[in-house]
């Protein structure tokens, strides 16, 4: 134990589980109950130690003030159009939540349609989903409280701003999709949970419903459920022509899905199973009558576009429209009766347009190397909008003419920094097994490669998620202080398609950690930094990444910041939606998976008498995605095992969840604490 810190004593219980003949002790099992008086008391004393320490760091207030100043700029979302109205989000600068505006003409003065900041004093009620009716008359919107995944839906009349009586509860992992007649919408929900344990209990048996405006939820019509398949979840989407309900069926986080449909033009039509095997990912794009277009990775790991005629009996005869390329096809939409394809080229955006026969038309000329998103709209639209961002480019909104191919700036923020003062480069390095991995490195120009630069290495590596360039005030502050920001595109992500993803799953998960460790070693070898100046960070699956790497190579890093991490790999599937991650990680209930999981589970690989990096674990009391028990148990075990002078602490946010919808005030506080912790432990000289 560090002589500088007196850590709270965490009582241990004599609890032992037996997995496939192997005894595993779990002395901190009691911390899995976040609402017990004992756990609440533990949270209080842990936070006191952490915040007492943070309050002694002189740089903390300076960092917070600079963060607040830089954060205070107008931020715009990408506009979208429904009927004769435009909609977009805007944050004036320091508002806790972004506000939804509407206007009929882009030159009009916008009116506020929904301001989540008025729904709670501290900004902890967040908008977590919305859908506009086809006639532009109604807004269905979902609200989440304190960062929970549980969402309640309401309906607002757009012209008057008044809410209707409709109120839907017990929804998670769902949007809403309106019928063409504007009389109601489809959504998915779970059975009513136990109010006392709803933040920990597992979520099974999702059902797809239709809600008619003006009726109570208990009158909603059950469209589809599968009592024999408790892990199946349903996403309902009405086609643009209003004729079909497309039902995408997911099973956990596996990218493979099923596709069923229902003909809404036929009364009492049955649900038809179009794709009834979990063989690949099928993302519905749009339809032309009975021709359904999909983006799929079937026999094409980097993605392609196919057409299926639902009137043909032989569904094996899927027509290829846009073949697989060397780039990764992330997303596809149809505008101006053309496919707009969002590709990744070495984790950078490339937007290409094809006609409906698959003939290449043009590539959208982007402002630089970065990430583009948007291109939403209807099949006939000739106008759309997109966003562009990079590590040194704040998110800028462009208006795009689908006919001429011309982009014009719609909204460009002004941030108090000069992007010309910074440089971005992409390097490629070899991982432990020789795999070639890309990494973005951003820092101030004129950086001296003297091995003495504080460096923050950030990663994720899982669930087919791609890390692409994006702007962040938080990272800008870090670079202003002389820090290097490095982001490797680890296996397990989606940057190079499904094969890249699968190379970091289940029994290949160690590849992800090896990639991250190799990135750290490359930065040290190339004189960017040293082990004494290197910090690692990541959240959720990235928190697992940090936990695994700091336990496998504690001497390689000076500091570690695992956020809302999956840290107990033997019991993750027993809480909320954790079971859904088994396609990614495996399950301790399977003997082979158990051996793999035990080999890297951060909680189970802490060794006593080991000096670990300075560590600040972060979590939140309302996180019902990755329950805080992961972080609680890991913190208790780390404090017991640690035999070094550096602090190993846990920062527990209250009235917050996994991260989505977190108010600006809480984000700024957390970032200030994170950078202050690194300033103190990496020996950064604040000038």
Automatic annotation (TrEMBL):
Pfam families: Peptidase_S9 (PF00326), Peptidase_S9_N (PF02897)
EC top class, as a word: hydrolase
One cellular component term from this protein's GO annotations in UniProt: cytosol
Keyword hit for Signal: no
Recorded coiled-coil stretches: none
PROSITE patterns: PRO_ENDOPEP_SER
Record bears the keyword Protease: yes
Single GO term (MF): oligopeptidase activity
GO BP terms in the entry: proteolysis
Keywords recorded for this protein, A-Z: Hydrolase, Protease, Serine protease
Domain Peptidase S9 prolyl oligopeptidase catalytic: 469-683
Domain Peptidase S9A N-terminal: 9-412
Residue stretches spanning the membrane: none
EC number: 3.4.21.26
Reaction(s) catalysed (UniProt annotation): Hydrolysis of Pro-|-Xaa >> Ala-|-Xaa in oligopeptides
Family, as annotated: Belongs to the peptidase S9A family.
Protein name: prolyl oligopeptidase
């Amino acid at each position: 134990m560090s002589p500088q810190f007196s850590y709270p004593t965490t009582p241990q219980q004599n609890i032992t589980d037996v997995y496939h003949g192997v005894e595993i002790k779990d002395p901190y099992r009691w911390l899995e109950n976040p609402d017990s008086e004992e756990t609440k008391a533990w949270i209080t004393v842990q936070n006191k130690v952490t915040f007492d320490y943070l309050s002694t760091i002189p740089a903390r207030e300076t960092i917070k003030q600079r963060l607040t100043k830089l954060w205070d700029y107008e931020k715009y979302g990408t506009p979208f159009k429904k009927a004769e109205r435009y909609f977009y989000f805007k944050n004036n600068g320091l508002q806790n939540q972004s506000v939804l505006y509407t206007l009929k003409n882009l030159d009009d003065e916008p009116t506020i349609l929904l301001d989540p900041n008025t729904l709670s004093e501290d900004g902890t009620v967040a908008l977590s989903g919305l859908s506009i009716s086809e006639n532009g008359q109604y807004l269905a919107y979902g609200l989440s409280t304190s960062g929970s995944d549980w969402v309640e839906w309401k309906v607002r009349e757009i012209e008057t701003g008044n809410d209707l009586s409709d109120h839907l509860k017990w929804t998670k992992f769902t949007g809403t999709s309106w019928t063409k007649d504007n009389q109601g919408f489809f959504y998915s929900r779970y059975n009513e949970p136990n109010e006392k344990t709803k933040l920990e209990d597992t979520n099974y048996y999702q059902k797809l419903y239709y809600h008619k405006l003006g009726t109570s939820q208990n009158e909603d019509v059950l469209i589809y459920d599968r009592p024999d398949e408790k892990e199946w979840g349903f996403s309902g989407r009405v086609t643009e022509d209003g004729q079909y309900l497309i039902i995408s069926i997911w099973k956990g986080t596996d990218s493979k899905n099923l596709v069923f449909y229902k003909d809404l033009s036929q009364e009492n039509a049955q649900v038809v199973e179009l794709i009834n095997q979990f063989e690949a990912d099928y993302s519905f794009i749009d339809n032309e009558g009975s021709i359904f277009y999909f983006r799929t990775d079937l026999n094409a790991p980097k993605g392609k576009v196919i057409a299926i005629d639902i009137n043909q009996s032989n569904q094996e005869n899927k027509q290829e429209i846009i073949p697989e390329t060397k780039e990764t096809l992330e997303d596809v939409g149809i505008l101006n009766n053309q496919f707009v394809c969002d590709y990744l080229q070495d984790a950078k955006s490339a937007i290409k347009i094809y006609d409906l026969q698959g003939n290449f038309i043009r590539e959208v000329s982007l402002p630089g190397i970065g990430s583009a998103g948007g291109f939403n709209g209807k099949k006939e639209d000739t106008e759309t909008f997109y966003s562009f961002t990079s590590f040194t480019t704040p998110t800028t909104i462009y208006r795009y003419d689908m006919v001429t191919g011309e982009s014009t700036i719609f909204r460009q923020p002004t941030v108090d920094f000069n992007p010309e003062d910074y440089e971005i480069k992409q390097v490629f390095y070899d991982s432990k097994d020789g795999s070639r991995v890309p990494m973005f490195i951003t820092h101030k120009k004129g950086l001296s490669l003297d091995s003495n630069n504080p460096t923050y290495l950030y990663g994720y590596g899982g669930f087919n998620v791609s890390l692409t360039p994006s702007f962040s005030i938080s990272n800008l502050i870090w670079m202003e202080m002389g820090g290097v920001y490095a982001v490797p595109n680890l296996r397990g992500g989606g940057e190079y398609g499904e094969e890249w993803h699968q190379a970091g799953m289940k029994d290949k998960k160690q590849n992800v950690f090896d990639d991250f460790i190799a990135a750290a070693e490359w930065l040290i070898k190339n004189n960017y930094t040293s082990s004494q100046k290197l910090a690692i960070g990541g959240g959720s699956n990235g928190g697992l990444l940090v936990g695994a790497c700091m336990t496998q190579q504690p001497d390689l890093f000076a500091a570690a910041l695992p956020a809302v991490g999956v840290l107990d790999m033997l019991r993750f599937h027993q809480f909320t939606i954790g079971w859904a991650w088994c396609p990614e990680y495996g399950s301790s209930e399977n003997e082979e998976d158990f051996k793999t999981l035990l080999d890297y589970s951060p909680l189970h690989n802490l060794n006593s008498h080991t000096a670990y990096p300075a560590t600040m674990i972060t979590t939140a009391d309302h996180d019902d995605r990755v329950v805080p028990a992961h972080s609680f148990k890991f913190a208790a075990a780390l404090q017991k095992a640690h035999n070094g002078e550096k602090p190993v602490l846990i920062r527990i946010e209250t009235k917050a969840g996994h991260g989505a919808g977190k108010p600006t005030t809480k984000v700024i506080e957390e970032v200030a604490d994170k950078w202050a912790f690194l300033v103190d432990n990496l020996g950064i000289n604040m000038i």
